[in-house]
């Protein structure tokens, strides 16, 4: 499969990486220029060298010529010092441009977030405009157009065909929840909350679920062979995904691969399934809140020796939990002693999760999978996070999100890609142990 069949965002070939390179190159040019100026300054010592001054008595003409040419070489308009200052100025300008680009990008992002929030907060007003006589201002909501597209007659099909609209709806949800908070009775307002972003809205919903872990047991330990690429890693993940509330930790030559499957129960608050891998964990993980799934994995990794490499592999909910664990461990917020190397996610909403620069994350995303849209964020452009986006439309939400039928299959094609951005992203993940002999432990979680 050729690189033209993928839409790659971020990573070593992304805009942020280009800005980092511009800043680094600018810094090198700036410092080199200053070094040249220092050399020019130090070279003035030759003008008053004792031996040189003594030679002036014997050949005053030659001495004068040397002094003049030396001064011109060091201090003239095209001299060494001038070139050094020019280089330094160019380097400073380049670094300034890199910072200006980064500032502008952040400003645009903040503006988009404010627009999304306002869109959700004014939703009833927008509906009122559309339902009122013609001639009033147009809004983002066109009910007639949405009806023609099948939103009301077949919402499931509409979601599958318009995943970008779901992303926009999620992005505007904090504003709508905030509106509900202002309209709710005084006794209900604390329950609704006043969120400013998707993480805060998710945290409000997560608080309605039980997030405690009652127990964790090692259900099975067996000898195996570690994967050597992302196809093998997702194949292993698919094997453990066939069981409820289980995950696996694989050890190979001091490398720890952690396999985290996705959601098993789409339950509602106050009517919970009792499973750890439920909707409550989804909300908590998106919000960055503590939850039973993360508690269990941290407990399983308690004996990882200092400096050992840890890789996280997760699908759907498991990918969110993987990114949150990598974030917490790498930032020293847990007792785990290992070093997080990489995170591989498949069909997970992780665009808003910031990992330290030395942790690489690669996300496989089916453009028609609605689950990666549930954080309300567009594909990011972080230098250490590469999103490899492909298109596979199977006509159903579950079919488009399938680990075995979509992501494992596509991973095999991605491994064979010759796209430089894809190749570099996969190289950053490492080899997950390179196919060596490994020991795999399956853990069983129990909800508190």
From TrEMBL:
Question: Cross-referenced Pfam families, in alphabetical order?
Answer: Lipase_3
Signal peptide location in the record?
none
Q: Which domain of life is it from?
A: Bacteria
Q: What are the Fungal lipase-type domain coordinates in residue numbering?
A: 274-375
InterPro entries, alphabetically?
AB_hydrolase_fold, Fungal_lipase-type
Q: What GO terms in the biological process aspect are recorded for it?
A: lipid metabolic process
Which SUPFAM superfamilies does its entry note? Answer: alpha/beta-Hydrolases
Q: What is this protein identified as?
A: Fungal lipase-type domain-containing protein
Native organism is: Nocardioides antri
Q: What is the lineage of its organism?
A: Bacteria, Bacillati, Actinomycetota, Actinomycetes, Propionibacteriales
